[in-house]
Amino acid sequence: MKRDPYEVLGVPRDADETQIKKAFRKLARELHPDVNRHDPDAEEKFKEAAEAYKILSDAERRQIFDRYGHEGLGARGFESGFQGFGSFADIFDAFFGGGDPFGAAFGRGGGAIQGGDVAVSVDISLAEAARGKEVEVEYDAVTTCEHCHGNGAEPGTPIDTCERCGGSGQLQSVTRTAFGQLVRTHPCDACNGEGKIARTPCSECSGRGRVARRVQLGVEVPPGIADEQRIRLTGRGHAGERGGRAGDLYVVVRVAPDERFVRDGNDLVTVIDLAAPDAALGTKISVPTLDGDEEVEIEPGTQPGSVLILRGKGMPSLRRGRRGDQRVVVNVVIPRKLTHEQRDLLKQFSASLGEENLQKDADESLFARVKRALS
Ligand SMILES: [Zn+2]
Ligand SMILES: [Zn+2]
User: Fold this and answer.
1) 37 with 117: CB under 8 angstroms?
2) Cα–ligand 1 centroid distance for 38 (angstroms)
């Protein structure tokens, strides 16, 4: 099912030529594989956008589409899709004529190319997320070759101007496309768009000027980080080419769930079990916190769903560092599998209960307590 080209480009029905062109350029820029290395569907999406543009940028096709839709175009012999085009770069060049349509970022034919981003993940525990942690990450990154400092020549050997392109790094050719004749500019294949050729290629990088290296890096995970949050380290990704800046490193932090706590923003919620007699009599219990176990006083007559607040025992806030609270929800456990003796005792006890033993607090229903605990 083909999508509506207006929808694909995100333009209104009455969009004019400039709007359509602008929308397409913006999309193309986002989806170009030199920029978008993470989205495996980028090429398909780009083709879709290119097709939408092909329709809307051509008055006749647009009119047919407006009246009859995609089917109308097919019926009138306007082939759709880009089967005839070959590679992604060909499609791109067909629209933009090669060269360097978007400035340095694309670097076709000699310009600077920005290095790609790298993503790694680290796993930490909830307690580590609370305290913050220095973690070591390891990843493969393309870096500038240190042996030749990136120029691709064995140190001390000459670098010649490329004869094929005369040093411009670009070659032009005329091709026929569905849009008519096009002068295409593409990087010189002899010098790879560098304009220069090392007479003796660097022995370390075979003349590429870049090498893939295992990089180890200490990364400071700040206290209070949440699961799946990312830390961005500018310039720690792949090295750029021809003077382009390096990409960034993204460290995705995975915080392992801790069965003792449920995280709620900067607060932690713990559920503790308390035997019914203890809830009635009052007691002291041990509650796990991120700082170790803590003795907590249980008042006599504590009701199911009661919430005790341990101030400042939650997670620190990323920005201010102030810690949230730990909310302890009391789950009163009713004894099961009673012996005959226990049953008798409980019967006696039950018979002894009076009205005043069972009175509720003013307005605290169990429901209200549970709701408060979860709020
Ligand atoms: Zn080298
Ligand atoms: Zn060349």
Assistant:
1) yes
2) 27
- Would the CA dihedral through 201, 205, 207, 209 be positive or negative? negative
Could you say which ligand is closest to the alpha carbon of residue 148? 1
Q: What is the pTM of this model?
A: 0.56
Q: What secondary structure letter does DSSP report for 112?
A: -
What is the spatial distance between Cα 329 and Cα 370, in angstroms, rounded to a whole number?
8
144: enclosing H helix or E strand: strand 133-144
Instruction: Report CA(162)–ligand 2 centroid distance (Å).
Output: 4
Token representation of residue 325: 């609270």
Tell how far the Cα of 169 is from the centroid of ligand 2, in angstroms: 5
| CB half-sphere exposure, 122, CA atoms < 13 A | 28
CA 104 – CA 226 distance, rounded (Å): 36
Cβ atoms of 248 and 232 closer than 8 Å:
yes
The pair phi, psi for residue 126, each rounded to 5°, is -60, -40
Tell me the pLDDT of the chain (375 aa) as tens digits: 788 999 999 999 999 988 898 888 888 877 766 666 677 777 788 878 888 888 888 888 888 888 888 877 776 666 554 444 444 555 555 455 443 333 333 334 456 778 888 889 999 999 999 999 999 999 988 888 889 988 889 999 999 999 999 988 888 887 776 666 777 788 888 887 888 888 899 998 888 888 888 889 999 999 999 998 989 999 998 888 777 888 899 999 999 999 999 999 899 999 999 999 999 999 999 999 999 999 999 999 999 989 999 999 999 988 777 899 999 999 999 999 999 999 999 999 999 998 888 877 655 666 776 776 666
CB atoms within 5 A of ion ligand 1 belong to: 145, 147-148, 202, 204-205
